[in-house]
Amino acid sequence: MLDAIRSFFTTSMHPSPEAADGEAARDIRLAACALLLELAHADDEFTDDERQHLESAVRRQFGLDSDEAERLLALAQKARSEAVDLWQFTNLIAENYSTGQKMVLAEIMWGLVYSDGDLASREDYLMRKICNLLRLEPGYLAEARARYDRAREDD
After folding, report:
1. What is the CATH number of the domain that holds 33?
2. Contacts of 52 (CB under 8 A, 6+ apart)
């Protein structure tokens, strides 16, 4: 599995300037997708609306085409299913993302949990847990939610 992940990132992903090196940037993207998938499955129902929102966000944020986004999400799902907890994903992001990047991720997460029209209590709990593990202050979580709400109203 690690060879498949390395191969995908070597051929498909471009490092972000914020990461210390290209390898870290690639791993961070996988970690972000694994967290998004964890959140999408939090209410035990991964709807088509959630899937579409997730795929669109991954394509947009990471500059991927549909096939690359699908491969990334498949690799992230595998990593998610093999993970013992969320710390391995959140720690990597917390160490390498700026506060602004974490806020963008939090906005994507809010969009994901609301994409099916309902915020389940497990989704709300997991949002707070992930943001805490990302070392985002509670005020930032509320601000990300408000920014998501404003963007949704503008659409």
Report:
1. 1.10.3680.10
2. 115
